[in-house]
Amino acid sequence: MPALFPLRKALCIAILAMGVLLLQACSTVRLAYNQAPHLAYWQLNSYLNLSETQTERVRGELGDLHQWHRDTMLPCHAELLQKMQLQLPALISPEQACRIYDDARTQFEKVLAQAEPGFVWLASQLSEAQIRNLERKQADSNADWKMEWLELTPAKLREQRYKKLLSRVEGFYGTLEDPQKAVLRASIAQSSFDPRLAYGERVRRQKDLVQVLRSISADRGNTAQSRALLQAFVARMMASPDPAYQRYAQTLVDEGCEGFARLHNAMTPGQRQRAAQSLKGYEQDFLKLAAR
């Protein structure tokens, strides 16, 4: 699904999406990673229409974040991929899958913490016109999101999710046989995913971000307050303040771990070995990038 707001999307670009099933060829990984600061700047600018002064500072901050990530986090990502390689040839449990998810989430949170000072500065520099531009871009993005996910019959929604997941899974394991496709379809059919709930949380986060940015703008010189406001927003991004949505989100995580384990265990030994070999390529690619 598309990112919920530009700051998160820019960060996701900058840290090169840890979701293994989203990875493509190693050459693509290298190209995307080396272009990450430019792509992150482009995404931010498309939402905020940055001034020349802001552009200069933001490009520098993104360059510094990228270098820190290359030096510090790429070896960590490679270590996680190495850990996964040891597990993939065998059957795995939902608990093992969730531990990998937790490890990846922890690494993402480290990047968020490193990026915080730069985003605090940028938030304090935004004008009301830039915040209104952000709102317009959010509205446009929401219209696209609704068309893709909300304006579908349940059957068409399931089929769309199936096609997207099948493409990702086959890029990782190779061509699936009919029994394996049936496992994937069953996981989707049993999923608790509700686009209405997802859209509601999406809009909540967007409004939350706009409110935080306006609060920071109202007292630009108060860096401590700006930092506290942004940290609180990130906390609400990572864990919704709505207890019902928290339960829903955790259910999706649990189902995702169970579904991945079930599908992985339906693969042949050859398919699981192919997946492990793919991860070996990504691990080596990350280490090469880190050494540059």
TrEMBL record:
It comes from the Bacteria. This is Lipoprotein. The lineage of its organism: Bacteria, Pseudomonadati, Pseudomonadota, Betaproteobacteria, Burkholderiales.
